[in-house]
Structure formats: structure tokens, C-alpha cells
Design a protein that fits this description.
Fructose Permease; seven-stranded mixed beta sheet
């Protein structure tokens, strides 16, 4: 099949990813790309508990994800690549020039961030990073669940 979505969600693997995205898309795997989680067995165990049977949880560093990306695209199962922050997404996009579309959702408030959509809060620097991705030909949208409209970057990054 192919990768259904490359998503940024600061909660990583949680109910909305598993139920909201996993079930409607018929996911066969979720590849969580995070250097810290990749090196922490107990964190991986925690995230695995949230993944139902039939969906494989894959944990990869940015470098591992870059090496495995083509395999994930060619996998017969439908997959979702998940990062927890814009910096990890940027690092992955730098190593995977084939990346063409990213979906933001569940990026929550923290100091310095302002609300762009009810489920996306970004700093000015994060907006600039996303605009750079768009200049490189990567479509950037925000979408909390697959049944919602994908909101283009130009609409929320003013």
C-alpha cells in the first residue's frame, strides 16, 4: 500500500491516533519517530500498551526512519509515521527528500506558542520552519481527524 500520513502530534501514540486515525484508515503499523523514545525501552512499552492487536508499533530514531522510509512506503500494510514535534519532522524531512505531505494535529500550548487552530499552537519559529518545508515542495496541512477538512498552512500560519 503506502504511508497514509506523516503526522506531528505531541502526544505521540494515544487514543486519537489509534482510534481516530488507525481505525478509519485501517492502519497496519504506526512508526513513531523520536530519538528519545527509541532509546527508552520502558517508554516503548508504555506506547505499545495503547496500540491494539493488528497494528504494529515501530520505534525509530530519525536516522533509522530515514533508512527505513522506503520500506514503509512499499509495505503492503497501511502505515502512519508519527513525530512529536516540528524539530523532529524537520530533521526527518532533511533526510527523506521524498516526503511530500505532512499533517499537523495535537500540537498543544506551551510558553511562546499561540493558537493557530483549536488543536494547533505554534511559535513564530515553528511557523517559519513549516513555511520552509512548504517552499521545498512539502504540503503542510493541519487535520485533527481524517474526517475533518485538511486546513492548508496558509490558513493557519499568518
Amino acid at each position: 500500500m503506502s504511508l497514509a500520513v506523516v503526522r506531528v502530534d505531541d502526544r505521540l501514540i494515544h487514543g486519537q491516533v489509534v482510534v481516530g486515525w488507525g481505525q478509519p484508515l485501517g492502519l497496519g503499523f504506526i512508526a513513531l519517530v523520536d530519538d528519545k523514545v527509541r532509546s527508552s525501552g520502558w517508554e516503548q512499552d508504555l506506547y505499545r500498551m495503547g496500540v491494539p492487536p493488528g497494528i504494529e508499533a515501530i520505534f525509530a530514531s530519525v536516522d533509522e526512519a530515514a533508512r527505513r522510509y522506503d520500506d514503509w512506503v512499499k509495505d503492503a500494510r497501511i502505515g502512519l509515521v508519527l513525530t512529536g514535534d516540528i524539530d523532529t519532522l524537520i530533521a526527518l524531512s532533511d533526510k527523506v527528500p521524498k516526503l511530500r505531505r505532512v499533517t499537523l494535529g495535537g500540537i498543544h500550548h506551551k510558553p511562546g506558542r499561540s493558537e493557530r487552530l483549536r488543536y494547533v499552537y505554534l511559535t513564530a519559529d515553528e511557523v517559519a520552519q513549516l513555511r520552509e518545508l512548504a517552499k521545498r515542495g512539502i504540503e503542510v496541512v493541519a487535520q485533527d481527524v481524517p474526517t475533518a477538512r485538511a486546513v492548508p498552512l496558509a490558513e493557519f500560519a499568518k
